[in-house]
Amino acid sequence: MVDDYQPAQTHALDRDCTTLSRHVLQQLQSFGPEAQDLSALMSRIALAGKLIARRLSRSGLVEDALGFTGRTNVQGEEVKKMDVFANDVFISVFQQSGLVCRLASEEMEKPYYIPENCPIGRYTLLYDPIDGSSNVDINLNVGSIFAIRRQTGEDLDQAASDLLQNGHEQLAAGYILYGPTTVLVYSLGRGVHSFTLDPSLGEFILAAENIRMPEHGPNYSVNEGNFWQWEESIRDYIRYVHRHEGYSLRYSGALVGDFHRILMQGGVFLYPGTVKKPEGKLRLLYESAPLAFLMEQAGGRASTGTERLLDVVPGELHQRTPLIIGSSEDVELVESFIQERIREQTDLVAPGR
Ligand code: P6P
Fold first, then answer.
1. Does 344 lie in the same domain as 237?
2. Within this chain, do residues 223 and 191 fall inside the same structural domain, yes or no?
């Protein structure tokens, strides 16, 4: 028997023990009640990710995992079976948790309340349970996006109007990317950190801490099929990258995977509005704002094209927004084309002002 035992400080063992829940407490440098709540909350989100990853890994083998439900959601989009399953998973992992009182999702017109949690659980989870679900049936990557906000007030009329605040009110945000590996990326406002699911342990293990964006990157990620629907300013930007070397178009049709590439390699993702739909397609509260939170934490930039994305105050829960997000120099380049067109239009209207 050894007295004054000193464990071997092996990197591998320490890394495998840096689970998500431990990392949250390290991040907050606290073991107090709120830190414990957020640690437990992130663990529940991780559990949801594991349950969804398991279903996806068998989606070609089990019934009710592929294809459509025959219903349309509040967005008027066809609901896939995985959308429903994933939406229910996030609800289930927070039942009897005492943590989350409300869940707001792309799949539900109004927030779902968990009454047994509400007296104590003052957090709201906003999420897109499976983003890019059309990729499920062709075995390409999909993702879940989430943000955590604090509930302010009693919300007795269940209007959840306290959720209609800008992105700076997010306590935490992140996503789970279901790809060759399952990766969870999150931030509590103290840097961006990624975890990889080790199926042999059933744990998300720390992979990278304090991820920082390059100021410029080679990728631009946009659906060029919309070229003739865009404002001229966006077409100007596309013409620019076509004419200059060093740019590569990478677009999967699933936001989380496209965002992750930009986060890891640099560049810019764009989903601008069109002339007919200037507000764009992506949702503010549970798609763009969480990703903008992460991007700024990683040293990047996120914009509507004319406004800092995190400053936008939604008028309703499912509000859409144009999104230009990525390396600061690349986002600024897109914004410069938009500003140039605004100047031209202003000069036309009021020459010489
Ligand atoms: P489009 C998926 O439907 C999604 O919401 C995002 O994941 C993705 O970035 C975007 O829409 C793709 O839209 O019009 O290019 O097919």
1. yes
2. no
